[in-house]
Amino acid sequence: MRDLDINQPAYGGEEEYPMGSIEEEEEEGGTPRPKKLRLSKEQSRLLEESFRQHHTLNPKQKEALAMKLKLRPRQVEVWFQNRRARTKLKQTEMECEYLKRCFGSLTEENRRLQREVEELRALRVAPPTVLSPHTRQPVPASSLTMCPRCERVTAAPHLAPSSAGGHPFRRPGALPVAGIADG
């Protein structure tokens, strides 16, 4: 496929651009770069307006827009390609920033949950300390019962049920834990 340059005339000859200007720029080292097309504000406005309506142009649309702007169809085509690339890059940058924020909040949530798991594991190893509602003295864990919902939440599939009612913390005829409703 032939490599075309928007800044070079298609047939090797110079063309006149009444609505835009062509400026020659110098690279570092003093050698001139190829001429770069500078679009007028009106050309840019019309191109942007067309882009908002259609992100791609069919050949007829491209030809009509090129004639209206006094540009070559290839220049319009390249402008649309570049504009799509800029749009995609901007979208990617926005998604990247969003994902960074999500990653940060998820990382913090993960740390918080890990701390909570460690605290729960520590509570599971140590016998629970519950105060009697009447005497405000610690009640032995062996005299506590759990509501069915708490049993389901705290029951681990790898623990074998004890002979005391199917739960390691439950004893038949034991007192219910104060402040926890059966659920």
UniProtKB/TrEMBL annotation:
The keyword DNA-binding applies. Keywords: DNA-binding, Homeobox, Nucleus, Transcription, Transcription regulation. SMART domains: HALZ (SM00340), HOX (SM00389). It is found in: Nucleus. Residues 32-91 bind DNA. GO terms for cellular component: nucleus. It holds the Pfam family HALZ. Residues 1-44, 161-183 are annotated as: Disordered. Residues 30-90 form the Homeobox domain. The keyword Thylakoid does not apply. It comes from the Eukaryota. CDD domains: homeodomain (cd00086). Belongs to the HD-ZIP homeobox family. Class II subfamily. This is Homeobox domain-containing protein. It comes from Musa acuminata subsp. malaccensis (Wild banana). The lineage of its organism: Eukaryota, Viridiplantae, Streptophyta, Embryophyta, Tracheophyta.
